[in-house]
Amino acid sequence: MATLQALQTMAAARDELRHRVALAREAAPEDAVGPSLKRFLGEFAVLAEPFHRAVRKHPEVRAERPRTVMLLPGFATHPIRMRYLARRLEAAGHRVKRWGLGFNWGPTESNFDALDRRLADLAERHGEQVVLVGWSLGGLFARELSKRRPECVAKVVTMGSPFSYSPRANNVWRAYHFITGHRVEEPPVPVVLAAKPPVETVALWSPRDGIVHPRAARGVAGERDREVALRCTHMGFAFDPEVVAAVLRELDRA
Fold first, then answer.
1. Can you say whether residue 37 is alpha, beta or left, with left for phi > 0 and alpha for psi between -120 and 50 degrees?
2. Cα distance between residue 127 and residue 112, in whole Å
3. How far apart are CA 221 and CA 64, in angstroms?
4. Phi-psi region for residue 102, left (φ > 0), alpha (ψ -120 to 50) or beta?
């Protein structure tokens, strides 16, 4: 019996692998492509970030009113990747919280249920609405979460998040298909990505983004309240001084 179960498990794993490989090998869309190779290669500048950080000067900034902030990481990244941004916000006086799910391996109903509970807990514990700041896929989580719990959200700030245009207008959709086992346009939870949340929603985007097409992250009127153009790479949304300054400004406007 044990041998039969083992064979069935191996067969299921093999079928799942074939399914994921097939998803990753699907034809690329002709009407929506990701940023150029030049922009994509620019993302490797992140390797020099530890050296820049060692000599970077930080202007003293104090929040006009401290906020409770939840940071949501990008696809296949851990909250630790946003720790630098968190420290800069904390230095200004804000209360910064992780999303509580570890690595972001894509959406599931259980993920959203857990985030729903965490958001409600943070809002109750601190006695105020929470500002959601999401990087890339994390921004999509933030938008959808605010639709579920608008009474708990003060504002949504997305950073390079592909909520508009085409879900395949980026350079990582094949990796997303393989890792999650579903198409970017067919998540296992009911969502309408381009629908604006019922709270103030601001989209930070960059023409230098080498992962997500600027058009997808910028959006159009009706999909967000405002858009703010920055000059950083996609990876830079987690640490670029210009991004830090932009997020601090948005927190003061919340």
1. alpha
2. 22
3. 29
4. left
pLDDT at 29 over 90: no
pLDDT tens, residue by residue, 30-87: 888 999 999 999 999 999 999 999 899 988 899 999 999 999 999 999 999 999 999 9
pLDDT at 107: 97
The tens digit of pLDDT for each residue in 184-242 reads: 999 999 999 999 999 999 999 999 999 999 999 999 999 999 999 999 999 999 999 99
State if pTM tops 0.90: yes
- In the block, tokens 């509580």 appear at 100
Confidence of residue 5 (pLDDT cuts 50, 70, 90): confident
1 pLDDT above the threshold of 90 = no
One-letter amino acid at 225 equals D
| The two three-digit tokens of residue 200, written as one number | 């103030």
Q: What is the DSSP string of the chain?
A: -HHHHHHHHHHHHHHHHHHHHHHHTSPPPSS-----HHHHHHGGGGGGHHHHHHH--------SS--EEEEE--TT--GGGGHHHHHHHHHTT-EEEE-SS-S-----HHHHHHHHHHHHHHHHHHTSPEEEEEETHHHHHHHHHHHH-GGGEEEEEEES---SS-TT-BS-HHHHHHHHSS-TTS-SS---TTSPPSS-EEEEE-TT-SSB-HHHHH--BTTBSEEEE----SGGGGT-HHHHHHHHHHHHH-
**Residue type for position 25:** R
